[in-house]
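=== RUN LOG ===
request id: a7f3
mode: sequence -> structure
chains: 1
length: 93
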Amino acid sequence: MDSCLNRLEKFAVSQNADKSTWALSLSARLRGRALDVYSMMSKDDVNDYDKLKAALLKRYQLTADGFRKKDSGHLIRNKEKVLCNSSSDWKII
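=== RESULT ===
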């Protein structure tokens, strides 16, 4: 999840995208449990990237840099692939 969020943030910044569009762009790429988190949030909160990010990190028991400190073992990477689609086709809306 952490790398998914980092990719989105780096891409959005490189495209000079307004931060108000980030949550929508992220939501279109969520899958599985990450999509469940999104679905349970209020309409106002799902449009706030910082709140959506915090909810996703909380669900996966990660902090902003806690994941980076974890052992990035094969199992973690495989699970992460299921949480967020590839960024190769990302567009900031």
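=== NOTES ===
The radius of gyration is 13 Å.
DSSP finds seven helices and no strands in the chain.
=== END ===
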